[in-house]
Specification:
It contains eight helices and six strands. It is an alpha/beta fold. A six-stranded mixed sheet has the order 1-3-2-4-5-6, sandwiched between helices. The radius of gyration is 17 Å and the shape is globular. The N and C termini lie far apart (about 40 Å).
């Protein structure tokens, strides 16, 4: 039923979707080093792998993006030296992350991996079934190279609140986004070392334009702080 509603709403939103794609603001990824360290104590290695969220779109530097903020919270909470690295690209799908970004990722020594994959699968109109297959294949590949690492997979953001999307597309993508988030939950639940990181945006936060970057499609630099904390909390099992 939800898939039928999505396609019905998307058909109605198609002219707006074409217009939005043509006129959308293109944001760059974060600047600065794609690796770093923070804190002191025993070394903990954190790898970020995925799409524009891992690439830090909306943040000025990677240290202020998702992976850097997660490293910051882990270092503070567990008194560790967290060495982090980022392997992200705007527009990457689950399949292209596995095929094109993973080969260069330093996964073998990773203690934890933060993954963001799904929004581009959605906007390219992958079905939930196809997305589940591609996400599972990506996680399988990560597990083979980092068998002892804990994996935190970012949930789908609330696309129904994105300022860059016209209302008709917000409704359609909001439905599909919730379907994809269920896929992430189910795929993560089937794996002993994988966790789903919900992206919770309440109505008050969603109404604030400064919660989003200039393109209206990615988090603002300030929003990466709670997002990074949520990812760090999801990885707390690494220290049990």
């Amino acid at each position: 039923m939800n898939s039928f509603r999505f396609w019905m709403l998307f058909a109605l939103a198609l002219p707006a979707a074409i217009r939005t794609r043509r006129t959308a603001v293109r944001a760059e990824g974060a600047a600065g080093p794609v690796m770093g360290s923070i804190g002191s104590g025993p070394v903990f290695r954190l790898v970020g792998l995925g799409d524009s969220i891992i690439a830090g779109v909306g943040a000025s530097t990677h240290a202020r993006g998702l992976v850097g903020r997660a490293a910051e919270h882990l270092a503070e909470a567990h008194r560790r030296c967290v060495r982090w690295s980022v392997h992200g690209r705007s527009g990457a799908t689950s399949a292209s992350i596995r095929q094109q970004l993973m080969p260069d990722a330093d996964l073998e020594q990773a203690d934890a991996v933060v993954v963001s994959a799904g929004v581009n699968d959605l906007t390219r109109l992958s079905s939930p079934r196809r997305y589940g297959h591609d996400l599972g294949a990506l996680l399988d590949a990560i597990e083979r190279r980092a068998p002892d690492a804990r994996i935190a997979v970012a949930g789908m953001p609330p696309l129904e609140h994105f300022p860059a999307l016209p209302p008709s597309l917000q409704r359609a993508f909001g439905i599909r986004g919730r379907q994809f988030d269920d896929v992430i939950r189910n795929v993560a639940a089937s794996r002993s070392r994988t966790v789903h990181v919900p992206i919770v945006v309440d109505d008050e936060t969603a109404a604030r334009r400064d919660a989003f970057s200039a393109d209206g499609f990615h988090p603002s630099e300030a929003s990466y702080v709670p997002f990074g904390r949520a990812a760090a909390d999801a990885l707390s099992g690494c220290f049990d």
